[in-house]
Amino acid sequence: MMDVGQQVYIQSFKHDGSLHRTWAKATVLEHTDECLVVVTYKAMVSESNGRVWQTREPAVCFFYPNKWYNIISMIRKRGITYYCNVASPYLYDGEAIKNIDYDLDLKVFPNGSYEILDEEEFAKHGFDMKYSLDVQKLAWDSLRELVDMAKEGTPPFDDETISHYFHLYLSLDRKRLKSKE
96-108 and 7-13: which strand pairing? Predict the structure, then answer.
């Protein structure tokens, strides 16, 4: 189990084992058998193409040990935008939170509208990296589950859940600053 307040890395791979993207810092907010919740804020992100950038807004991220997706809730001035990655269930090996990214993404806007992204990339990588029929079915089923959750406002697709975790993060951050005084 990871401890609340613990700083961890996030590593996302592709099906062929190549590194896809890394986040240099995430703060653990909750870790249960059903879900791992972390927040990233001003974290350095490294892409497989060499591009490095820093996250601009806080994001509450939900990783699942038994679900084929993760959900990133980006807290922006105009509301919460959700970016959902179809990905393997996460694992934590003491080094980083790790998963395999399966290309398909769902972006949910503050007004509830949504967009399915990267279907062509999924088809190309599915062919090139030989995704099994089981993996393809899991990916599409997971995308449908995410769409249904977003439409119904099932947590974490609700402001109350995100607000709860963001306030928890702020209280941890204040405690960390006080301990440095």
Answer: parallel
